[in-house]
Amino acid sequence: MTTDVRRVVATAVEYELLRAGRSAQWLSRQVGITGAELRERLAGEADFTVTDLAEIARALDIAVAQLTPRPH
């Protein structure tokens, strides 16, 4: 992912977490990654995998498309 894409995805994940009233700690348990791994991804220092995005969407009961940039 490019830095811009990382930023868009991280912002979308944070927004959906806030909207759902859930914490990053809760999400890391649901997705099966450590809190440190999730913090890296949310900070834009590492990529979310396709599996991460699918698990996040499942946990938050949303479509994966809500976590990804819209095509131009």
Q: How would you portray this structure in words?
A:
By secondary structure, the chain is an all-alpha fold. Helices cover 62% and strands 0% of the residues. It has four helices and no strands. The protein has helices at 3-20, 24-31, 35-42, 50-60. α2 packs across α3. The chain is globular, with a radius of gyration of 11 Å. The two termini are 16 Å apart. The mean pLDDT is 93.
Mean pLDDT: 93
Largest sheet: none
Uncertain segments of ≥5 residues (pLDDT<50)? none
Q: Approximately what portion of the residues adopt beta-strand conformation?
A: under 5%
SSE order in H/E notation? HHHH
Helix percent reads: 55-70%
SS elements, strand count: 0
| CA gyration radius, whole angstroms | 11 Å
Number of helices: 4
Distance between the termini: 16 Å
Features:
mainly alpha; 62% helix; 0% strand
In short:
Helices cover 62% and strands 0% of the residues. The chain is an all-alpha fold.
Topology diagram in text:
Elements: H1 3-20, H2 24-31, H3 35-42, H4 50-60
